[in-house]
Amino acid sequence: MFDLIIRNANLPDGSRGFDVGLAGGRIAAIEKRIDAAAREEIDATGRLVSPPFCDPHFHMDATLSLGLPRMNVSGTLLEGIALWGELRPLLTKEALVERALRYCDLAVSQGLLFIRSHVDTSDPRLVTAEALIEVRERVKPYIELQLVAFPQDGYYRAAEGEKSLERALDMGLDIVGGIPHFERTMEDGRRSLEALCRIAAERGLPVDIHCDETDDPMSRHIETLAAETVRHGLQGRVAGSHLTSMHSMDNYYVSKLIPLMAEAEINVIPNPLINIMLQGRHDTYPKRRGMTRVRELMAAGLNVSFGQDCMMDPWYAMGSADMLEVGHMAIHVAQMGGIEDKKRIYEALTVNSAKTMGLEGYGLAVGCKADLVVLQAADVVEALRLKPTRLLVVKGGKVISRSAPRIGELFLEGRPASIDPGRDYVPRS
Ligand SMILES: [Zn+2]
Predict the structure, then answer these.
(1) 57 phi and psi, to 5 degrees?
(2) How do residues 62-102 score in pLDDT, each as one tens digit?
(3) What sign for the dihedral angle of Cα 128, 131, 136, 141?
(4) Which residue is catalytic, options 183, 213, 223, 382?
(5) CA trace torsion 346, 57, 269, 55 (10° rounding)
(6) Which of 84, 70, 4, 62 is nearest to 37 (CA)?
(7) What domains sit in the chain, N to C, each tagged with a CATH number?
(8) Quick check: helix, strand or coil at residue 128?
(9) Cα gap 259→238, rounded to integer Å
(10) How far does residue 17's CA lie from ligand 1's centre (Å)?
(11) Nearest to residue 207, comparing CAs of 184, 181, 235?
(12) How many angstroms separate the Cα of 24 from the Cα of each of 29, 365, 397?
């Protein structure tokens, strides 16, 4: 007896027409035809069934604050940081919780059930940490939320940066963050990584650093991060977020750097939407793209996953909690439009992110947790093209969100009465 059987599903590996049986909170069977009863059956009608999306880099303390206390006029990173500085003293726990919960509602409807959020620890009040810890608890039945202690104003640069970060970790944040390129000097940036990796090693926590989010090719903190990772035996538990300076680095230097990163098993987290929006701002023409070297890093065996970073906050007025929008942008900025490239981009939004976040029992295989999404698309390549409606979102074997398919009705002489963009335009092979 199954709790739920989803019939006639297409799977992320390209296989078609399988039944997926869920029981006891786990995926209990994936077969061509499951001949068994279930409390509920759903016909996926040849749509893609995928594990849920994961966002390994987000700022849930800032999301939905767009317009508070004013708009970012220049649209630059620096005005965004200044604007956040204006808003921060006005933040209240209640407002932070309300915005974060509202964001999580949207995330669920988009099939986004695993989120790693940075939490700004610069204000010693730590109202951000207090609020997000409450949110982590409240959303636990449907979203796994990981929280990074993030010294936005600099670990050494902010007045009480060091103390606040340690206090936030004492309160129960999960991961050690940092921002070496924003410290006063390169030397302070280097020292901050030494201190932060030591703290992580002592506390047994992972590390996730906003690292080299700049166009300066001499911003080489990733080198220090990789070396400190190896020194403390933190291989596989450290993430380098952004790494945009790698876009502008000398090729010879990168040929030494990437193997060093591979040795440290650094998890690479580019944020394509934000990188293409914020980098290259000091360029006239030609303008750099500013995203890190995704293809080369993947080829070297590094685990690359993509983050959304922002939605409707001081840095980025756009966003929709849609990781396929992130993947869609990644395809363009990394120029990874080949069919195999796109399959790897989809993995980056799902299994690679799960690896970055250290998720247990994630995936679409027998024995994995009964969490999945049914999309209005036939396969992963089509999903990236269409950013389709998430028809169903299942968590622990239960449907937690349902959306009607997007169907266009037409009133044209001699043409069809309706179109389903996820079915009627699939490439004919
Ligand atoms: Zn960020």
Answers:
(1) -150, 105
(2) 999 999 989 999 888 888 888 999 999 999 999 999 999 99
(3) negative
(4) 213
(5) -10
(6) 4
(7) 2-51+363-425 (2.30.40.10), 53-357 (3.20.20.140)
(8) helix
(9) 15
(10) 39
(11) 235
(12) 12, 15, 8
